[in-house]
Amino acid sequence: MVNRKELKPEESPSARFGERLRRLRDERGWTQEELAERMGYSDTHISAVENGRRPPTPHFATSADKAFGTGNRFARQSRAARGSALLEGFSEFVDHEGRAVEIRLYEVGVIPGLLQTPEYASTLAKSAVKRGAITPDEAEEQVSLLAKRQAAIARSCPPMVLTVLDESCLLRPIGGPALMSAQLARLIEFAELPNTTFQVAPFAMGENRPFTLPITVLTLPDRSLASYAESAQRGHLERESASVLPILTTYHQMQADALSQAASVVLINQLRKGTP
Length: 276
Known about the structure:
alpha/beta, six-stranded mixed β-sheet, 2 domains, 434 Repressor (Amino-terminal Domain), single chain
């Protein structure tokens, strides 16, 4: 073939991914254009991944698995090629989060990262390693990045951080009684900061709880809005105001129905008394 670049899979994980992609494509007799059509990408994108110039995203790897019928082998290999356990889209979100002047958080089932103690965060990461979801190095990356994110919002001119936690965040035991007691104490400290608000959305809200998944809404220095949400495979940062404004409105409505900050702190103290 003319101008067919020789691949060197030993050079890097991305190169190994690209070599495997080309090999399977050749075995099926597909051109880059044909594979691109099957995967929903451009042939230029396929070429860049095959030649190791562009690391495969989780979405790209999942599309490759579907096209080739390889289960989740490309998805697993892409994690090594990216050298990261972070969801696609998360790094972009962190960049915006670090510049935000207002951060609105809503979380279900687990304390949000910005409010976690190091011990709480490490316990979650170790559990993911035990399940085989991430490697020990990736767990260390997650915990290290979380510390940097927490430091970023503790800067000299910190953002306003408004938080609503579903009651499930408080009742899900993580790491044992002592760890949970320290984590609940951290929430009370957070509520006392001058640049925060803290509320609990109780189970009693029932069907009036508007969000079923975690959501973050950012107000950036130019007063533009962005929202971030995750699926199991990727994160999505939305910058279109027309899409973010309804989310912000719903967030405000949830705040009106949630417990007040004073009542939320009382609830946490009651839970701490029941924690040895």
